[in-house]
Amino acid sequence: MVNLGRLLSTLATSACVTASYLSTLPPVFQNSSSTWAWVSYSNPSVAVLPEPFNRSSLDAPLEGEISDVSIAKEWSFLNKTNFIAYDERFFQIIGPNTVIEHVEQLAYQTHEAPCYNKKTNQVFFTEWGPPGGVNGTHDWQYLYDVASGNLSKIQTHPPTLNAHGCVVYNDTLYVVTDGSGSKEIGTLVKIDPLTWKKEVILNNYFAQPFLGFNDLDIDSDGNYWLTDSKSAYGRGLIDFYYPTNPTVYFVNATTMRPRPVHITTGNANGVAVALNPHDSTRSRQKHTVYLPDTGVSEFLPVSKKNPFGNRGLFAHDASITGGVLSNPRLLNNPISYFYDGLRASRSGLLFAGAGDGVDVIHPADGLTLGTIRVGGGDNLAVGITFGKHELWIVGRGGLWKVSNIAERLDRDW
After folding, report:
1. Does 281 score more than 60 pLDDT?
2. What are the φ and ψ backbone dihedral angles of 361, each rounded to 5 degrees?
3. Which of 46, 96, 313, 382 yields a CA-CA distance of 20 to 30 A from 327?
């Protein structure tokens, strides 16, 4: 005769590894070809942890320390996942058929500026900074052909030095650069993806050189939003001290006149622009501009990550003509690490490179809905670019493709 009490006790003990801290996945995700986990605060085991436990704000939760052996095993399992949901909405956005592939394994250094060009079906991205290139300077970029799976190195005409951010608009690549000190200062350039001809369209603010551009986005009216950061000087790519604090510039596409719209003593990094869902002909705010501050990264005299540095993600309303930001509010502070590359999807969801993976953030409540992981270890997610139902991630470790995403991601413009 089976001892029912002992059987229940055994089942409870074995279930502890998979169900104590982690919530049970929806049935359709239990048989997914990808590995999923669900961490929900509706689960008392998440809301109240057995003490002692600890985690650095710069490390992913799965890297935390805890005295409870069963929960420690579950955290170890999280490192084997492809997707971690923190909110039920994440399941609907990503869907059960999504897969992530590490399509190009490259050097463990920074990769930036991903651009997916749907017309050519190619992904443009860069290797950025030291130790690569010539003393950290790169005069070439990567081009990944999606159909053939071929990765090649290309040069624009003339060469583009130290590209750091990229957006495709009207089938043209718009790229921001750090420049390289005395040879070339930070610029905004346009690149023809068929001929690779490069044209500089902006390189100064009333004769003041830019610090070194980090990223950009283009709004639905074709205007540019540029983040000018101290990263280039901090990593030795330029040889002059930055002339002002990190700044975000709005550039009118018709006049090409730049205007500072945001200044920080931390660091300007990613930027994403989304249409205001409440916009109307009478509205004074057409776009919402999202800016992560990465003052957490400190450079000279010592390169380090300071957990007391700013790493918040802020939302701002942009005036109907652009150029004036108002109503700044803290939307989100990363669960771990800091937000680097940032993009807004067709529906306004925010996708942010966040170290261990790409966080998906809801623009209304600021909650992190889930994470698309890039495999742990030395891999690190930096930048994102959208296709229709897929996205590409670049970072330390190379290029990843995320396919068969349920929600459509690419914007109307």
Report:
1. no
2. -120, 135
3. 382
CA distance 140 to 398: 16
**Hey, what are 392's tokens?**
């590409």
Which stretches does DSSP call E strand in 11-128? 36-38, 53-54, 65-66, 83-85, 99-105, 111-117, 122-127
Full 3-state SS string of 87-115:
CHHHHHHHCCCCEEEEEEECCCCCEEEEE
Which three-class secondary structure state does DSSP give residue 231?
helix
The continuous run of DSSP H or E covering 30 comes out as: helix 27-30
Give domain 99-403's CATH number out of 1.10.10.10, 2.120.10.30, 3.40.50.1360, 3.30.70.260: 2.120.10.30
Interval 288-306 mean pLDDT: 89
By the 8 A CB rule, do 348 and 278 touch? Answer: no
Bigger pLDDT: 88 vs 2: 88
- Buried/exposed code over 24-37 (b: 16+ C-beta within 10 A; e: otherwise): ebeeebeebebebb
Is 377:356 a contact under the CB 8 Å cutoff?
no
- The owner of tokens 């957490």 is 296
Among the listed residues 233, 235, 226, 293, the one whose alpha carbon sits nearest the alpha carbon of residue 265: 293
CB 91 within 8 A of CB 387: no
Sign of CA dihedral 345, 350, 351, 353: positive
- Taking the C-alpha atoms of residue 344 and residue 360, their distance in angstroms, rounded to an integer, is 10
State the Cα–Cα distance between residues 184 and 34, nearest whole angstrom. 45
Provide the pLDDT for residue 303: 81
Q: Which two tokens stand for residue 6?
A: 């002992």
Q: Do the beta carbons of residue 369 and residue 86 sit within 8 Å?
A: yes
Query: Among residues 57, 46, 51, which one has the least CA distance to residue 85?
Result: 46
Evaluate if residue 8 carries a pLDDT over 80.
no
Answer whether 390's CB lies under 8 Å from 120's CB.
no
Please check whether residue 362 is in contact with residue 90, taking contact to mean a CB–CB distance below 8 angstroms.
Answer: no
Q: What is the tens place of the pLDDT at every residue in 326-341?
A: 999 999 999 999 999 9
**Contact between residue 386 and residue 409 where contact means Cβ atoms under 8 Å apart:** yes
Segment 115-166, tens digit of pLDDT: 999 999 999 999 999 999 999 999 999 999 999 999 999 999 999 999 999 9
SS3 235: coil
Reference 341, options 302, 378, 313, 316; nearest CA is 313
Closest CA to 86 of 374, 371, 351: 371
